[in-house]
Amino acid sequence: MTELEQKSKTITWVDPHPQLEAAMTMSGLDYLQAMIDGKLPAPPIASHINLEIASVAPGEAVMAATPDESHYNPIGSVHGGFFATLLDSVCGCAVQTTLPVGTAYTSLDLNVSFLRGITSDTGRVVAHGRVTKPGSRAAFVEADIRDSDGRLLATATSTCLIFKP
Questions:
Q1: 18 φ, ψ to 5°?
Q2: Alpha helix locations (H) across 3-160?
Q3: Is 1 part of any domain?
Q4: pLDDT of 91-116, one tens digit each?
């Protein structure tokens, strides 16, 4: 076997613990908008998949991520975990936009349908999450991922538990 070229990627993030306290003093929508505005740092997971929150509105979130070769699976395409991480993130943030001060959420389930493959050549992909039914105990969400040409790459549905920490 010939020697293979080794590549590397540096991932940096900000300690998330201080911002967790801020999260409980703001509505979910205000908290996410503060991240978009640069007043609060992005969550650590964002650096792993080159994720950014593009926009938020009540019951909606839009995120973008750029896959690279570090996201590949053994068959030479982007791993399904990249899709799932992006979809879980956009679903959760869509729910978070509906939450009042002092309320939190966590994912209960995530059902993903992979419709097209992604490679590093796909470039930036955009995920859109929409709350289909908000609630005080559970919220239901749907989401999709599209490429720059608007082609549908994956869809998801999710249920999130709503609670007071």
A1: -60, -35
A2: 17-23, 28-36, 45-49, 80-96
A3: no
A4: 999 999 999 999 999 999 999 999 99
The verdict on residue 114 lying in a domain is yes
Structure tokens at 61: 């979130």
Q: 154 has which bridge partners?
A: 114, 145
Q: How far is Cα 119 from Cα 94, in angstroms, rounded to an integer?
A: 26
- Domain harbouring 56, CATH code: 3.10.129.10
Predicted confidence (pLDDT) per residue in 9-50, tens digit: 999 999 998 888 888 999 999 999 999 999 999 999 999 999
Residue type, 116: R
pTM of the model: 0.94
pLDDT for position 20: 86
Q: Could you give the number of structural domains in the chain?
A: 1
CA distance 42 to 163: 22
Report yes or no on 11 lying in a domain: no
- Helix ranges (H only) for the chain are 17-23, 28-36, 45-49, 80-96
The confidence score (pLDDT) of residue 2 equals: 72
The DSSP bridge partners found for residue 70 are none
Name the amino acid, one letter, at 119: T
CA distance 131 to 4: 46
